Amino acid sequence: MTRNANIRDEALAVDIRPPAVILCEPQLGENIGTAARAMANFGLVDLRLVNPRDGWPSDKARAAASRADHVIDAVQVFDSLEAAVADLSFVFATTARSREVAKPVRGPDEAAATVVGYGATGLATGYLFGRERWGLNNDEVALADEIVTLPVDPAFASLNIAQAVLVCAYEWRKTATRGALPFALDEDANPPAGKADLLRFFEHLEGALDGAGFLRPVERRPHMVRNIRNIFQKARLTDQEVKTLRGIVAALERRPSRPRKDMPPEDATDEGLLGGEGGEAGEAGEGSA
Amino acid sequence: MTRNANIRDEALAVDIRPPAVILCEPQLGENIGTAARAMANFGLVDLRLVNPRDGWPSDKARAAASRADHVIDAVQVFDSLEAAVADLSFVFATTARSREVAKPVRGPDEAAATVVGYGATGLATGYLFGRERWGLNNDEVALADEIVTLPVDPAFASLNIAQAVLVCAYEWRKTATRGALPFALDEDANPPAGKADLLRFFEHLEGALDGAGFLRPVERRPHMVRNIRNIFQKARLTDQEVKTLRGIVAALERRPSRPRKDMPPEDATDEGLLGGEGGEAGEAGEGSA
């Protein structure tokens, strides 16, 4: 479990009732456990098992859950799917196959919108997952309101249960939190540089390049300056980064091979500050306009 | 591998260059294999390994890939991350932790939009995933353009590599196909019933209910009829379903306990056709308006 030092409030605050996950006759404890872990990743807690083949509790499930013990501890076991869905108001059946059942087929994002909508009003919802080998039968699908399927490559469509749970849980949380990520670029610690500082850097750089004979011929200078400024504008520099760049320019200006003041600049043989010779860099500048 | 009889063309046709998946020093062959399977599910094929701990090829990886052999067979192994990304134009580093690195942090959906945008123009892109135990170091993250992270529950944030690959691959395919699902409700096989048939069913049902004394008192009849019609309108009935319902009404009209023609309807003691007695069903009808 990774704890972030700087967790965003929007990612923590989810006051929408999460859906139940119902596994119908799961065969392997490992799959129950990895499904529980996937649920925990995205804040789901209500795991229901209908007739798990190897019984319950399951050490293999707990081990595979990788510390999602709060989900494993809260597991409910039912002896029929009807009993498992009885307290729910809207149920999606997940299936990877086209069926004759005449129900709407949704993607996980559409299903999440429905489940979050009901969950926001306190209604209980659920996702129904079938057996590892052959999924759900038609009678089981008939207990659901709608079908959810994943936009897989039809040539390689089989997902294991935990993967299907993961994507449904991911879409649920993404919708419930409006996509809130657990952390973001810390803009407070990385504010963009003020334009005055940036302009001083540009002037410093351009002065150094004039000294190095890079910004020639003179009629092309405005164009080349624009292209160079655009390079650094795109980088959205912070204060510290502007300082670093000014240090770089100053250091390069001071280097031993720097053309002497008493030599005409056109005799300068050192490479241009931005790599390559003056002429080449000028061409590159043109190309990047 | 499940093949659908009725695969939708939109789900098959993806002519956008998919991103590479780069695993940096993966430790377990199983994780390489499950990552390959997740890639195959969503149409990614370019898997790159940087110094896999247990070498390559890996029987464990192939076994865990569950027949995603085309991905395993095409794996490229590199001895540095720089070499692994050299031919790419835009790289996302995945991380579950807030970092000091000043890079934009995106969700998998935003990252997919970027990668699909570049991929549509033929540019090569990639997602970089770190080691099982501790992810990527800052030098490795510095090789990437932006960071992608998942909108996990901050209290339970650790995903395994295959899960992270799965969600990124899912979002990629969803974006690349505009959410095309591999199958849908077959509207051709399940056309909605024509309104004339539906109205004949309504008249049949309402006639039967009049006969059973259900639609009373008479001043409430229009309201009750509206509510009952709404129930069946919401069900978006097909031709066949309308026929089935007419059969149901006819069968219930004929049942032995049906009030005789020579008895006044108010003496009917059988339950209303839609469950409950007339009065109760009337109340329910009111509630559902």
Can you walk me through this structure?
The first copy, chain A, has 289 residues and is of the alpha/beta class. Chain A has two domains: 168 residues, 3-Layer(aba) Sandwich (Alpha/beta knot), CATH 3.40.1280.10; 93 residues, no CATH class. Chain A has a seven-stranded parallel beta sheet with strand order 3-2-1-6-4-7-5. In chain A, helix 2 packs parallel to helix 8, helix 6 packs across helix 8 and helix 9 runs parallel beside helix 11. The N terminus and C terminus of chain A are likely disordered.
Residue-averaged pLDDT of chain A, rounded? 84
**Termini of chain A, distance in Å?**
47 Å
Individual helix count of chain A: 12
Oligomer, anyone?
A: homodimer
Low-confidence stretches of chain A: 1-5, 263-289
CATH level 1 name of the largest domain in chain A:
Alpha Beta
Structural class of chain A: alpha/beta
Q: Strand arrangement, largest sheet of chain A? A: 3-2-1-6-4-7-5
Question: What's the CATH superfamily of the largest domain in chain A, by name?
Answer: SPOUT methyltransferase, trefoil knot domain
Q: How many structurally independent domains of chain A?
A: 2
What is the strand tally of chain A? 7
Q: What proportion of the residues of chain A is helical, as a percent range?
A: 40-55%
Question: What's the layout of helices and strands?
Answer:
2 copies of one chain form a homodimer.
Chain A: H1 9-12, E1 20-24, H2 29-41, E2 47-50, H3 59-64, H4 69-73, E3 76-78, H5 81-85, E4 90-94, E5 105-106, H6 108-120, E6 125-129, H7 138-142, E7 146-148, H8 161-176, H9 195-211, H10 221-234, H11 239-253, H12 278-287
